[in-house]
Specification:
The chain is built from eleven helices and no strands. The chain is mostly helical. It has one domain: ABC transporter involved in vitamin B12 uptake, BtuC (Orthogonal Bundle), CATH 1.10.3470.10. It is globular and about 55 Å long. 43% of the residues are buried.
Length: 276
Protein backbone atom coordinates (compact mmCIF):
# COMPACT_ATOMS: atom_id res chain seq x y z
CA UNK A 1 0.00 0.00 0.00
CA UNK A 2 2.77 2.45 0.92
CA UNK A 3 4.53 1.71 -2.35
CA UNK A 4 1.62 3.28 -4.25
CA UNK A 5 2.55 6.70 -2.83
CA UNK A 6 5.66 6.59 -5.00
CA UNK A 7 3.51 6.71 -8.14
CA UNK A 8 2.43 10.10 -9.45
CA UNK A 9 -1.03 8.90 -10.53
CA UNK A 10 -1.85 7.66 -7.02
CA UNK A 11 -0.61 10.83 -5.35
CA UNK A 12 -2.67 12.88 -7.79
CA UNK A 13 -5.71 10.74 -7.05
CA UNK A 14 -5.23 11.11 -3.29
CA UNK A 15 -4.83 14.90 -3.44
CA UNK A 16 -7.69 15.28 -5.91
CA UNK A 17 -10.06 13.18 -3.84
CA UNK A 18 -9.21 15.13 -0.68
CA UNK A 19 -9.68 18.56 -2.26
CA UNK A 20 -12.90 17.82 -4.12
CA UNK A 21 -14.33 16.09 -1.02
CA UNK A 22 -14.13 19.42 0.81
CA UNK A 23 -15.87 21.26 -2.02
CA UNK A 24 -18.59 18.64 -2.43
CA UNK A 25 -19.27 18.65 1.33
CA UNK A 26 -19.80 22.43 1.34
CA UNK A 27 -21.98 22.39 -1.78
CA UNK A 28 -23.85 19.32 -0.55
CA UNK A 29 -24.78 21.04 2.71
CA UNK A 30 -26.42 23.87 0.78
CA UNK A 31 -28.22 21.44 -1.53
CA UNK A 32 -29.54 19.24 1.27
CA UNK A 33 -30.62 22.26 3.31
CA UNK A 34 -32.64 23.58 0.37
CA UNK A 35 -34.00 20.07 -0.24
CA UNK A 36 -32.67 20.07 -3.77
CA UNK A 37 -30.81 16.77 -3.72
CA UNK A 38 -32.56 15.82 -6.96
CA UNK A 39 -30.82 18.69 -8.74
CA UNK A 40 -27.59 16.68 -8.52
CA UNK A 41 -29.09 13.99 -10.70
CA UNK A 42 -30.69 16.48 -13.07
CA UNK A 43 -27.56 18.55 -13.65
CA UNK A 44 -25.37 15.45 -13.78
CA UNK A 45 -27.43 13.90 -16.56
CA UNK A 46 -27.67 17.27 -18.31
CA UNK A 47 -23.86 17.20 -18.41
CA UNK A 48 -24.13 14.14 -20.62
CA UNK A 49 -25.39 16.43 -23.37
CA UNK A 50 -22.29 18.57 -23.01
CA UNK A 51 -20.02 15.54 -23.08
CA UNK A 52 -21.67 14.29 -26.25
CA UNK A 53 -21.43 17.71 -27.91
CA UNK A 54 -17.78 18.00 -26.92
CA UNK A 55 -16.92 14.67 -28.53
CA UNK A 56 -18.98 15.53 -31.61
CA UNK A 57 -17.26 18.91 -32.12
CA UNK A 58 -13.83 17.59 -31.18
CA UNK A 59 -13.28 19.96 -28.26
CA UNK A 60 -12.66 19.34 -24.57
CA UNK A 61 -15.80 17.51 -23.33
CA UNK A 62 -15.25 18.79 -19.77
CA UNK A 63 -15.59 22.39 -20.98
CA UNK A 64 -18.83 21.61 -22.79
CA UNK A 65 -20.10 19.64 -19.79
CA UNK A 66 -19.42 22.71 -17.63
CA UNK A 67 -21.40 24.90 -20.01
CA UNK A 68 -24.32 22.47 -19.98
CA UNK A 69 -24.16 22.08 -16.19
CA UNK A 70 -24.22 25.82 -15.56
CA UNK A 71 -26.99 26.25 -18.13
CA UNK A 72 -29.02 23.43 -16.61
CA UNK A 73 -28.62 24.74 -13.05
CA UNK A 74 -29.50 28.28 -14.03
CA UNK A 75 -32.38 26.95 -16.15
CA UNK A 76 -33.86 25.07 -13.22
CA UNK A 77 -33.67 28.18 -11.04
CA UNK A 78 -35.12 30.38 -13.80
CA UNK A 79 -38.00 28.03 -14.56
CA UNK A 80 -38.91 27.67 -10.88
CA UNK A 81 -38.74 31.38 -10.02
CA UNK A 82 -39.91 33.10 -13.20
CA UNK A 83 -42.37 30.58 -14.58
CA UNK A 84 -43.57 29.09 -11.29
CA UNK A 85 -42.63 25.56 -12.34
CA UNK A 86 -41.93 23.25 -9.42
CA UNK A 87 -38.28 22.44 -8.83
CA UNK A 88 -38.77 18.72 -9.37
CA UNK A 89 -40.57 19.32 -12.68
CA UNK A 90 -37.87 21.73 -13.87
CA UNK A 91 -35.17 19.22 -12.91
CA UNK A 92 -36.95 16.50 -14.86
CA UNK A 93 -37.04 18.74 -17.92
CA UNK A 94 -33.30 19.49 -17.98
CA UNK A 95 -32.54 15.87 -17.04
CA UNK A 96 -34.44 14.55 -20.06
CA UNK A 97 -33.11 17.25 -22.40
CA UNK A 98 -29.48 16.63 -21.43
CA UNK A 99 -29.71 12.88 -21.84
CA UNK A 100 -31.53 13.17 -25.16
CA UNK A 101 -28.95 15.57 -26.58
CA UNK A 102 -26.10 13.44 -25.26
CA UNK A 103 -27.42 10.30 -26.92
CA UNK A 104 -27.88 12.11 -30.23
CA UNK A 105 -24.40 13.69 -30.23
CA UNK A 106 -22.67 10.45 -29.22
CA UNK A 107 -24.55 8.62 -31.98
CA UNK A 108 -23.46 11.25 -34.50
CA UNK A 109 -19.81 11.12 -33.39
CA UNK A 110 -17.76 9.02 -35.81
CA UNK A 111 -16.16 5.90 -34.34
CA UNK A 112 -16.17 4.67 -30.75
CA UNK A 113 -15.86 6.98 -27.75
CA UNK A 114 -13.91 5.00 -25.13
CA UNK A 115 -13.49 7.95 -22.74
CA UNK A 116 -17.24 8.12 -22.24
CA UNK A 117 -17.14 5.16 -19.86
CA UNK A 118 -14.81 7.09 -17.57
CA UNK A 119 -17.32 9.94 -17.29
CA UNK A 120 -20.23 7.56 -16.71
CA UNK A 121 -18.58 5.50 -13.96
CA UNK A 122 -15.61 7.64 -12.92
CA UNK A 123 -11.89 6.94 -12.92
CA UNK A 124 -10.09 8.74 -10.13
CA UNK A 125 -6.72 7.37 -11.20
CA UNK A 126 -6.79 9.52 -14.35
CA UNK A 127 -6.63 12.78 -12.39
CA UNK A 128 -3.74 14.93 -13.64
CA UNK A 129 -1.87 17.83 -12.08
CA UNK A 130 -3.98 20.18 -14.24
CA UNK A 131 -7.12 18.70 -12.69
CA UNK A 132 -5.69 19.19 -9.20
CA UNK A 133 -4.98 22.85 -9.92
CA UNK A 134 -8.57 23.27 -11.14
CA UNK A 135 -9.86 21.52 -7.98
CA UNK A 136 -7.76 23.73 -5.69
CA UNK A 137 -8.72 26.98 -7.44
CA UNK A 138 -12.41 26.10 -7.41
CA UNK A 139 -12.38 25.00 -3.77
CA UNK A 140 -10.56 28.20 -2.75
CA UNK A 141 -13.11 30.36 -4.61
CA UNK A 142 -15.98 28.39 -3.06
CA UNK A 143 -14.65 28.68 0.50
CA UNK A 144 -14.00 32.42 0.13
CA UNK A 145 -17.50 32.99 -1.25
CA UNK A 146 -19.12 30.96 1.54
CA UNK A 147 -17.04 32.74 4.19
CA UNK A 148 -17.97 36.21 2.87
CA UNK A 149 -21.68 35.51 2.34
CA UNK A 150 -22.21 32.82 4.97
CA UNK A 151 -25.08 34.55 6.77
CA UNK A 152 -26.93 35.33 3.54
CA UNK A 153 -26.40 31.79 2.23
CA UNK A 154 -27.90 30.29 5.38
CA UNK A 155 -30.88 32.65 5.25
CA UNK A 156 -31.56 31.93 1.58
CA UNK A 157 -31.19 28.19 2.12
CA UNK A 158 -33.70 28.04 4.96
CA UNK A 159 -36.17 30.85 4.15
CA UNK A 160 -35.74 32.76 0.87
CA UNK A 161 -39.06 34.61 1.32
CA UNK A 162 -37.99 36.08 4.68
CA UNK A 163 -34.59 36.88 3.17
CA UNK A 164 -36.27 39.05 0.55
CA UNK A 165 -38.23 40.86 3.25
CA UNK A 166 -35.00 41.81 5.06
CA UNK A 167 -33.45 42.93 1.75
CA UNK A 168 -31.03 40.08 1.15
CA UNK A 169 -30.08 39.80 -2.53
CA UNK A 170 -31.62 36.36 -2.89
CA UNK A 171 -31.19 36.24 -6.65
CA UNK A 172 -27.45 36.89 -6.45
CA UNK A 173 -26.90 34.32 -3.69
CA UNK A 174 -29.09 31.70 -5.32
CA UNK A 175 -27.62 32.00 -8.80
CA UNK A 176 -24.06 32.17 -7.47
CA UNK A 177 -24.53 28.98 -5.46
CA UNK A 178 -26.25 27.43 -8.46
CA UNK A 179 -23.23 28.11 -10.69
CA UNK A 180 -20.82 26.85 -8.01
CA UNK A 181 -22.93 23.71 -7.64
CA UNK A 182 -22.80 23.10 -11.39
CA UNK A 183 -19.01 23.48 -11.50
CA UNK A 184 -18.59 21.20 -8.49
CA UNK A 185 -20.74 18.56 -10.20
CA UNK A 186 -18.61 18.68 -13.35
CA UNK A 187 -15.39 18.36 -11.36
CA UNK A 188 -16.76 15.53 -9.24
CA UNK A 189 -17.79 13.57 -12.35
CA UNK A 190 -14.12 12.73 -12.86
CA UNK A 191 -14.10 11.00 -9.47
CA UNK A 192 -17.30 8.95 -9.27
CA UNK A 193 -18.90 9.43 -12.67
CA UNK A 194 -22.39 10.42 -13.68
CA UNK A 195 -23.97 7.34 -12.14
CA UNK A 196 -22.68 7.72 -8.57
CA UNK A 197 -22.25 11.48 -8.24
CA UNK A 198 -25.28 12.11 -6.03
CA UNK A 199 -23.78 10.04 -3.21
CA UNK A 200 -20.80 12.38 -2.90
CA UNK A 201 -23.06 15.41 -2.54
CA UNK A 202 -25.74 13.93 -0.27
CA UNK A 203 -24.53 11.03 1.88
CA UNK A 204 -22.07 12.96 4.11
CA UNK A 205 -24.80 15.48 4.95
CA UNK A 206 -27.32 12.74 5.71
CA UNK A 207 -24.81 11.20 8.11
CA UNK A 208 -23.98 14.54 9.74
CA UNK A 209 -27.66 15.35 10.25
CA UNK A 210 -28.03 12.35 12.56
CA UNK A 211 -26.27 14.32 15.29
CA UNK A 212 -26.14 17.90 13.96
CA UNK A 213 -28.88 20.46 13.41
CA UNK A 214 -26.97 23.68 12.72
CA UNK A 215 -25.84 24.58 9.19
CA UNK A 216 -22.23 25.19 10.23
CA UNK A 217 -21.99 21.94 12.19
CA UNK A 218 -23.46 19.93 9.33
CA UNK A 219 -21.00 21.50 6.90
CA UNK A 220 -17.93 20.87 9.08
CA UNK A 221 -18.88 17.28 9.88
CA UNK A 222 -19.75 16.66 6.24
CA UNK A 223 -16.21 17.66 5.32
CA UNK A 224 -14.80 15.20 7.85
CA UNK A 225 -17.12 12.40 6.71
CA UNK A 226 -16.55 13.11 3.02
CA UNK A 227 -12.77 13.06 3.47
CA UNK A 228 -12.96 9.84 5.48
CA UNK A 229 -15.19 8.09 2.97
CA UNK A 230 -13.33 9.28 -0.12
CA UNK A 231 -9.78 8.69 1.07
CA UNK A 232 -10.79 5.44 2.77
CA UNK A 233 -12.54 4.30 -0.40
CA UNK A 234 -9.46 5.08 -2.49
CA UNK A 235 -7.17 3.11 -0.17
CA UNK A 236 -9.55 0.15 0.02
CA UNK A 237 -9.94 0.22 -3.74
CA UNK A 238 -6.18 0.09 -4.21
CA UNK A 239 -5.92 -2.81 -1.76
CA UNK A 240 -8.77 -4.84 -3.27
CA UNK A 241 -8.33 -3.85 -6.94
CA UNK A 242 -11.97 -2.88 -7.50
CA UNK A 243 -13.44 0.35 -8.95
CA UNK A 244 -12.73 3.26 -6.62
CA UNK A 245 -15.97 5.18 -7.14
CA UNK A 246 -18.11 2.23 -6.07
CA UNK A 247 -15.97 1.57 -3.00
CA UNK A 248 -16.22 5.23 -1.95
CA UNK A 249 -19.99 5.02 -2.04
CA UNK A 250 -20.01 1.76 -0.09
CA UNK A 251 -17.69 3.24 2.55
CA UNK A 252 -20.01 6.23 2.99
CA UNK A 253 -23.01 3.91 3.24
CA UNK A 254 -21.11 1.83 5.79
CA UNK A 255 -20.40 4.95 7.85
CA UNK A 256 -24.10 5.82 7.70
CA UNK A 257 -25.14 2.38 8.94
CA UNK A 258 -22.62 2.50 11.81
CA UNK A 259 -23.52 6.04 12.89
CA UNK A 260 -27.24 5.37 12.63
CA UNK A 261 -26.90 2.15 14.63
CA UNK A 262 -24.88 3.87 17.34
CA UNK A 263 -27.38 6.74 17.43
CA UNK A 264 -30.29 4.31 17.79
CA UNK A 265 -28.49 2.35 20.51
CA UNK A 266 -27.64 5.44 22.57
CA UNK A 267 -31.18 6.78 22.16
CA UNK A 268 -32.56 3.45 23.35
CA UNK A 269 -30.27 3.47 26.36
CA UNK A 270 -31.40 6.98 27.33
CA UNK A 271 -35.04 5.92 26.89
CA UNK A 272 -34.54 2.91 29.17
CA UNK A 273 -32.97 5.08 31.82
CA UNK A 274 -35.93 7.45 31.72
CA UNK A 275 -38.48 4.63 32.04
CA UNK A 276 -36.69 3.01 34.94
Amino acid sequence: MLELIDYDFFRNALIGVAVISIASAVIGTYIVTRRLAAICGGVTHACFGGLGLGYFLGINPVIMASVFAIGASAGVEWLSTRHRIRHDSAIAMVWALGMALGIIFVFMTPGYVPELTGFLFGNVLTISMTDIVAFVVFTAVLLVFVAVYYRQIVMCAFDPDFSRVVHVNVRFITYSMTVLTAICIVLTIRLVGVMLLMSMLVLPQIIAEIYCRRFRSIMLWSIVISLTGSVGGLLLSAASDVPCSAVMVLVLLGIYVIVKSVSGFTSGCRGNKLTT
